[in-house]
Amino acid sequence: MSNDLDFEGWVCPLPLRDTPTIVMGHGGGGAMSGELIEQLFLPAYGGAARAELGDSAVLSVPAGRLAFSTDSFVVKPMFFPGGSIGDLAVNGTVNDLAMAGATPLFLSTAFILAEGTALSDIGRVATALGKAAEVAGVQLVTGDTKVVDSGSGDGVFVNTAGIGVVADGVEIGPARARVGDAVIVSGDIGVHGIAVMSCREGLEFGTTVVSDTAPLHGLVAEMLATGIDVRVLRDPTRGGVAATLNEIARASGVGIELVERDLPVPAEVKDACGLLGLDPLQVANEGKLLAVVPADRAEELLAAMHRHPLGSGARRIGRCVAEHPRMVVARTGLGGTRVVDLPIGEQLPRIC
Amino acid sequence: MSNDLDFEGWVCPLPLRDTPTIVMGHGGGGAMSGELIEQLFLPAYGGAARAELGDSAVLSVPAGRLAFSTDSFVVKPMFFPGGSIGDLAVNGTVNDLAMAGATPLFLSTAFILAEGTALSDIGRVATALGKAAEVAGVQLVTGDTKVVDSGSGDGVFVNTAGIGVVADGVEIGPARARVGDAVIVSGDIGVHGIAVMSCREGLEFGTTVVSDTAPLHGLVAEMLATGIDVRVLRDPTRGGVAATLNEIARASGVGIELVERDLPVPAEVKDACGLLGLDPLQVANEGKLLAVVPADRAEELLAAMHRHPLGSGARRIGRCVAEHPRMVVARTGLGGTRVVDLPIGEQLPRIC
């Protein structure tokens, strides 16, 4: 930013305004806060943003049911192979809405910026966020920016909240899985987590894995258009497939049995997990979904999923069983079974 | 938390679970994340929370217009005279909705917690948040929790997003002020900012000032019930009355003239501002609003405001003028005028 910033005709005389980094004043609600919105966020967001991007937005929505969701993103580093915290901030919340069967419409964006963060980095994040919103077809309608002193926060934290519309008749929920249902995954697992870990400070390892971050509501729309009773949809982010299936098993009171050889784990993910001592089932994904559907409609649903680019790798990975209710087990290649636990804590910090 | 945590029948054997503080595992999306929600957030929120508090909520709303808003809260210290970051997180977003003329209905809550933060502090914040939501009559419907390593964030950051319903015929916006309109404030100014500063590390000074944090939608409902064309409503938070009036003047293209002797500045705020070299007009408020209304209805509106506890100190402080468009001036006691600038940066960090 140069010294000739023109804020509605008023040229700032202060050398402070030459700063290439965030200073406390950007969070003060005064002229510098206004400049940050006018000169950085709005241009970076591009066509995805409402022109005013004010404290609140007034929206027209159809009568009926809305889905409402929120997520904060603290991933480190903020740029990683295949994406950035800006992409995640859109896709994470869009996908939470999609998993309720909703069509996402509106997002809020709230940034917590650490003093000293480069404005160019924030610009790159905001540009990625705007592009991801355009791709997902959601409008950025309201926002907030706070600045914290260095040492109190680092880099960029982003929160998004989203509103979507749920069509009549759509009833999706984690408690709806029934014994006999098929468990389906939309594609390769473990990719996002390994992509982020591969460039984490002190943990660099060479890999060609790039994050799978993507908005899933288009794929969900294809699935719902079949008319099949999709009982459960979830995106297996933090805690991976293991955490998500355990939650479904507990909420529905069924057992879940996976067939290990049917799990789509790319070779690079398998190798990296071996190196790091991780279970691919516990590694985070950002552009994948798990679905539980009646077994007799599973092939039909898979055919529909295969027609969508984000579902081309969809496959059946297991089924809901009456045995071991509320527990997930995997049948191993050797004919034995192992328990797939809910992870207790975290494998490695900050991947979404 | 004790060693006999019972998570759906499963007793944790790890000494880690004895921790009285946040550890990275609480943000991992696994068992510890579940425990934090089940055993801390849900009990603390009490009746204000939906039982499931999941990744997303499906809500029934009437057709028409919705207001949507978001705010992050990073106030330091997290407890201050008259409130906490938990109260602010509810009232801040409720008030952004109220300033659009909306009745607030639903809030999301997203916490970013630093490793090492005492669980008891988080419990106190969440309890205050739940109580404030009950007072404001809003439901906490969806949430998120992330943990960042110590040194990357400190204590507790909270984001809330909110949805409210805007009644037909309500048209409130910062660009609607007209020459001749009266400018009204709902009560004493500068109170919240001084209350927070009074207990800031390294800045302690004795004062009896307590934060004015409060939800304002009840007062707004009384104002709108008069049928008076309330043109602009804004809560003067960061940047204070000065920032808010400058924004209104710029958006509406009018000048605003304040009468300095009519500004309700409590003696303690005046004293503290003198000590710290601050302009009370630039100090943050959390439970006050500014209204711009047709001058011929101002007395009638003030009478309605006086009937509400949060409007008992309401008074006229100025008017919109054709002179000096897009600029705010104050007439001083000596008959002169001074320009009331949009603050450039920030007086002191983190007051909301």
Automatic annotation (TrEMBL), chains A, B:
Domain PurM-like N-terminal intervals: 55-166
CDD domains: HypE
Annotated InterPro entries: HypE (IPR011854), PurM-like_C_dom (IPR010918), PurM-like_N (IPR016188)
Residue span, PurM-like C-terminal domain: 178-324
Pfam families: AIRS, AIRS_C
UniProt-listed GO biological process terms: protein maturation
Superkingdom in the source lineage: Bacteria
Family: Belongs to the HypE family.
NCBIfam families in the record: hypE
Name this protein carries in UniProt: Hydrogenase expression/formation protein HypE
Organism: Nocardioides panacis
Gene giving rise to this polypeptide: hypE
